[in-house]
Amino acid sequence: MPPDGYAWWYMDALSDCGTRALSVIAFIGSVFSPWYAWSRRRAPDNHVCMNVATYGPRARFTMTDRGSSALRQTENRLTIGPSSMSWTGDRLIISVNERGAPPAFGCLRGTITLTPGAVTQVELPLTRDGAHVWRPFAPSAGVQVDLEGDGNTWEGHGYFDANFGIRALEKDFSFWTWGRFPMPDGSAACFYDAIRRDGSTLAQAIRFDAGGVPRPITAPPLTPLPRSLWAVRRETRADPGFLPRQCLAMLDAPFYTRSAVQTQIGGHMTTGVHEALDLRRFRSPLLKPMLAMRVPRVSRWRFSE
Questions:
Q1: Which of 57, 140, 244, 246 is the most buried (most CB within 10 A)?
Q2: Could you tell me the pTM of the whole model?
Q3: Is 210 a residue whose pLDDT tops 90?
Q4: What's the rounded Cα separation, in Å, for the pair 137 and 9?
Q5: Angle in degrees, CA 155, 157, 162, rounded to 5
Q6: Contacts of 212 (CB under 8 A, 6+ apart)
Q7: Is residue 305 pLDDT above 70, yes or no?
Q8: Rounded to whole angstroms, how far apart are CA atoms 122 and 4?
Q9: Residue 273's closest CA among 1, 18, 42, 17?
Q10: Cβ distance 196 to 181 under 8 Å?
């Protein structure tokens, strides 16, 4: 991977009861780590991370920036320190063993199993030169969560994708929103909207059927959501006249927000995961020390075997 490069593998899930959620992001070149930024992004594999967060009662957040000694990769398995992602047959198994960031210290351990309805072959460049690429592997999936702690065993619906790039996000983007919304027929609608720093825009709307086959759709209008607690601007797609709303607060940071959002698409009510990312804020050097409080750095790691 070139200097300034990154790769991340992302999954999220909402519980069937609607009161819990989680997200997992495995990073090589941890794009939101202040330690990677302070290193001038010279060595992506020296800044790896398994970011795991639970949402709902007794929510937890873990994000440890680790050195290259913590990274192992094979064709079907990615290991970062004590945690891993691996394909086993038709399932993605995520083994979690992470320590919580302040103020919620303690360990988060257990297993998350994601079973895709189908695996797509879609690869979408996010810039004209292909410097950033979105790879939606499983737009619709079943998820089983078995983490230690009361209430952290549940089932729900989820999503799995990856993003790859050869330049820092903030070099090419000012703002983006993304959302994935399950539909009644087993399909999933995904929306990727971005404002690039050169003034151009990205507006992708794709519906993946139950077999993973993509079909471009006409995107409903961009509709404002209330700003986050940190006043991050938010908007999502919704049928004309419908006002989307937040159903569950997830991650809220000075430059980034993730939440469960209810909207209406093609006449169907749906609740999915939505994110908004303000990279103009993220470029501020004043933000990095704040992030370091939530993203500890462990430069050395030794595997037991």
A1: 244
A2: 0.96
A3: yes
A4: 10
A5: 120
A6: 116, 117, 118, 119, 120, 121, 138, 139
A7: no
A8: 24
A9: 18
A10: no
